[in-house]
């Protein structure tokens, strides 16, 4: 019995650490977008010869992406990312490998809900001073050149030693992005204009009790 309690406590500790990682990413991405300006982008992208190097494409105001993610410790997960700038929300529906289905619903007012459904339901609400990343959150990124990855030739940018972003040279579609801590995200499908139903982003009642 004590051994089972020990395992459960370990699982709870890992979940809390993961939620904190998500929170840190939200804060850092938001801080990046606040600090970025178009002027900085232009100054970074002008070579001494006067040639302008590629700039990352802004995110569409609405899109759905299916993401394969390899976390820092080698664990895997599949994430359905639903970005909707027009409605001020960013939704990640995260399927852990052989584990739970976690809903991460972030709002532009700084509120984020992390919850599960079903018998083992749980919810955590966090508040941030900043909202979701704006479409041009990569403004000011440093261009690193071209690299072949995941079967695609990509332009690559780095931003404040926090994220490395890979975009297909021809289609301008994101292919991959890596975080400073080793988390690697690979884009499997990418649907511009796709929108998640409003009923699927409402946090359950137990998030408010």
Average pLDDT level: 84
Strand order of the largest sheet: 6-5-4-3-2-1-11-10-9-8-7
Shape: globular
Question: Under the CATH scheme, which architecture of the largest domain would be assigned?
Answer: Clam
Strand-and-helix sequence, N→C? HHEEEEEEEEEEE
Strand content: 35-45%
Radius of gyration: 18 Å
Sheet having the most strands: 11 strands, antiparallel
Regarding CATH, which class of the largest domain? Mainly Beta
Binned, the helix content reads 10-25%
Q: Supply the number of structural domains.
A: 2
What name is given to the CATH topology of the largest domain? outer membrane lipoprotein receptor (LolB), chain A
Distance between the termini: 31 Å
Structural class: alpha+beta
* Continuous helix count: 2
Protein name: Transferase
InterPro entries: At4g14100-like (IPR038941)
Organism: Macleaya cordata
What are the SSEs and their pairings?
Layout: H1 2-35, H2 38-44, E1 62-70, E2 76-84, E3 89-96, E4 101-107, E5 111-116, E6 122-127, E7 142-149, E8 152-159, E9 163-168, E10 174-179, E11 184-192
Antiparallel strand pairs: 1-2, 1-11, 2-3, 3-4, 4-5, 5-6, 7-8, 8-9, 9-10, 10-11
Protein name: Transferase
Organism: Macleaya cordata (Five-seeded plume-poppy)
